[in-house]
Design brief:
The chain is an alpha+beta fold. The chain has 26 helices and 24 strands. It is globular.
Length: about 750
């Protein structure tokens, strides 16, 4: 036997390729080997940026004695949770059922058929009060396997049955949509705002205590709710402003280079867990962009949010952007400092280091050290992240901006944290949406170009015309088929990209993804996170056995929005563009699950609440038509930008030129959709141009000037051609009567 992780695409698996443990990837072969040897399977689950995964690896998996014990008594399997959320989901649920808690590294012991019978998280190399050492755990599990096999089998059987029931209970029924009650949905949303306020940390901002995570889906809901006119809109605005201000002024936010750390170890946001994840930063970039276009608040002004959004967008493109398009999953928490790996070593500064970096401006160096609370002088050796914990004054902002390039240059000479270069489809979809929205708010075409490059990679590499791969490495799709959150997340990104560009290939791809998702993940009226088990490329037999054959759905938001809530949003957007009642009804069925979900806490349902706000707003639809070249083009582009800057939740913006007919065809040279994904070049021979229904029968003005058509609830107002009139209609005002026409 040998370690079989060499050559694996996953960066996390490759991190363990030199361990003396005889690791192998997750798969049916590993469980078949365990059956042949009549030994349990040890399943170790983590991810490349996980600090405590590294700690356990150094303490136990690199230790020859521990490795010898593992190799002799177990078949040892390594799992990258980011590549295999299906595996992580079922075994994390098992761990939580047995211990009441979970986390990574996740350590699971299972029968050769995949059923778990014992689980935990991090185990130390030596026993601690109330916690056995890892080798003691191995000894106890081996003894139970040898001497109490019947008890082990009963435990595994009971746990699998319990997990099967748990997953079945979470499945959503999405048959006939219930009668829609806008008043009831509005009351649910307002009640969620009040409940969130009751859990606010009034001293430090955010929700709950330590450890404190960025509540990204909840923030999107609060920003959307604040855009409305309900009784709790002002409360939501203040709550969102306080939370965003606390985060952006704290050590969680990298004020020098941009981007947010995964979470704060402390309640006051002062000690981050330094790993930086794509899914966090994609969501928070979009929230900051939406907050900026909303106008901010006294608690967190729009100009401060704009600066944070710009820094985060720059960081995302610079630090996570890959040469072939797409965005890497994460940056590690650890980096080398003084010759050894240190959590956050890349990001922290001593007063001495700051003074050395600004040796040509010692007075400014002292001012910045004071601003960030760093000691100066010969004893200035305590390293800390740069943050003021308060808003910077105008002169302080100018001081930091003046020296930012020098400080970034000094930091760049340090050993950087490792990057996990795998491209996860759903997370990249969220990044595309964020970059597309931020490009309009920040007026930066470079961000839109970056979004399109990522979308090109997803559509060309991950999508084969019918199925979406979850992961790619170096431009090649690997691993299992995407889960529901991948399909719906990519659709979310494609719709946002269409709104920003008017390129109908992105609209067409979004519709394909939505239809593929409903076809694959809605089976017999039930919504699941995974396609049917009979499909190739999905969870192996071990995972199905571990949950007693049940299909799975986790409707709760975790580090990113749940697949169910993302699908609801994509369905609602699809209905706004196409007029499809089928899509609208299916979104309504998912939204009908909100009360049950909220009974477990509003922080678990942030994105679905955000979708509810879009539904309560209509969602509003804006079709902008007019010349895209010539003297009238600036007028068309100005109307388009005005629509993109509207804070109306879930606004669907359609945009394009009129080629002389009442329907809209792609502009000359625009890529069209073929059978294998968006084409890289111009229209292909024999391909029928895509027409967006919202633009159909929307002519420009008789004089060739642009017009904007605003619609809600299948009813459209008379078209307008000025920014003020469009703004008024998007805000719900205006005296222009409805024309009574529906979008079909």
């Amino acid at each position: 036997m040998t370690n079989r992780l060499a050559g694996q695409a996953s960066a996390y698996l490759r991190q363990h390729a030199e361990n003396p443990v005889h690791w192998q990837p997750f798969g049916d072969d590993a469980f078949a080997e365990a059956a042949r040897r009549d030994v349990p399977v040890f399943i170790s689950i983590g991810y490349a940026a996980c600090h405590w995964c590294h700690v356990m690896a150094h303490e136990s998996f690199e230790d020859p004695a521990t490795a010898s014990q593992l190799n002799a008594g177990f078949v040892n399997v390594k799992v990258d949770r980011e590549e295999r959320p299906d595996v992580d989901g079922v075994y994390m649920a098992a761990c939580q059922a047995m211990t009441g808690q979970g986390g990574w590294p996740l350590s699971v012991f299972a029968l050769p058929d995949g059923r778990a019978f014992y689980a935990g998280t991090y185990f130390p190399p030596e026993p601690r009060p109330g916690q056995p050492s890892f080798r003691q755990v191995l000894t106890s599990v081996a003894a139970a396997w040898a001497d109490r096999r019947d008890a082990v089998e009963r435990q595994a059987d009971a746990l699998a049955e319990a997990l099967g029931g748990l997953f079945s209970d979470q499945l959503l029924s999405v048959g006939q949509a219930p009668e829609y009650d806008a008043g009831g949905l509005a009351a649910v949303a307002s009640g969620a705002v009040v409940r969130l306020g009751q859990t606010e940390d009034h001293v430090h901002g955010g929700f709950g205590g330590a450890p404190k995570f960025p509540p990204s889906p909840v923030l999107e809901f609060l920003v959307r709710h604040a855009a409305g006119a309900g009784e709790t809109a002002g409360y939501a605005r203040a709550l969102a402003g306080r939370t965003l201000a606390a985060m952006c002024r704290s050590a969680l936010f990298d004020i020098l280079g941009g981007g947010f750390a995964r979470y704060s170890v402390t309640a006051d946001w002062s000690l981050p867990h330094y790993e930086k994840m794509l899914y966090d930063n994609a969501q928070l970039l979009r929230v900051l962009a939406h907050w900026t276009r909303l106008g901010g608040s006294a608690e967190f002004p729009a100009d401060e949010a704009r600066d944070a959004a710009s820094l985060t967008a720059d960081w995302l493109v610079r630090e996570l952007g890959l040469p072939g398009g797409g965005y890497a999953s994460s940056l590690d928490a650890d980096s080398e400092r003084d010759g050894r790996p240190v959590e956050g070593g890349y990001y922290v500064w001593t007063g001495t280091e700051l003074a050395r970096a600004l040796v040509d401006a010692p007075h400014d160096g002292a001012r910045l050290a004071s601003l960030f609370g760093l000691r100066v002088g010969e004893h200035a050796t305590t390293a800390a992240p740069l943050h003021a914990g308060r808003p910077l004054g105008a002169d302080e902002r100018e001081l930091l901006e003046r020296h930012r390039p020098v400080l970034l240059g000094a930091r760049a000479r340090r050993t950087p944290p490792a990057r996990d270069d795998k491209v996860v489809a759903g997370w990249n979809g969220l990044a595309i949406a964020a970059l597309a929205d931020a490009s309009a708010v920040l007026d930066r075409a470079d961000l839109l170009n970056a979004a399109e490059r990522a979308a090109d990679l997803l559509a060309g590499v991950h999508w084969d015309g019918t199925r979406l791969a979850r992961v790619s490495h170096d431009g090649k799709a690997t691993g299992v088929e995407g889960v529901l959150a991948d399909y719906a997340g990519c659709a979310e990104g494609a719709f946002a990209l269409y709104a920003a560009t008017g390129a109908t290939r992105w609209y067409a791809w979004a519709i394909e993804l939505v239809d593929a998702a409903t076809g694959r993940f809605v089976v017999s009226g039930l919504l699941s996170d995974e396609a049917p088990a009979t499909d190739a490329g999905n969870a192996g037999s071990a995972v199905r056995t571990a949950r007693a054959g049940a299909r799975t759905l986790d409707p709760h938001d975790n580090e990113a929005p749940s697949g169910a809530s993302l699908l609801a949003g994509a369905l609602l957007t699809a209905a706004a563009y196409s007029g499809s009642w089928k899509h609208r009804a299916l979104a309504g069925s998912i939204l009908a699950g909100l009360p049950k979900l909220l009974s477990q806490g509003p922080r678990l349902a942030g994105w679905l609440l955000a979708v509810a706000e879009a539904r309560l707003a209509g969602p509003l639809e804006a079709a902008i038509v007019g010349a895209l070249d010539g003297t009238r083009a600036p007028e068309t582009l100005a109307l388009h930008r005005e629509a993109l800057l509207s804070p109306s939740p879930g606004l669907a913006v359609a945009f394009g030129s009129t080629p002389g007919t009442r329907g809209l065809a792609p502009a000359a040279g625009e890529p069209s959709r073929g059978s294998g994904g968006p084409t890289a070049g111009g229209a292909e021979s024999g391909v029928v141009p895509v027409t967006v229904p919202l633009l159909q029968d929307r002519p420009a003005a008789d004089d060739g000037g642009p017009l904007a058509y605003v619609c809600r609830e299948f009813t459209c107002r008379l078209p307008v051609n000025t920014l003020g009139a469009l703004r008024e209609q998007l805000m719900g005002g205006g005296s222009a009567p409805a024309d009574g026409t529906g979008v079909q």
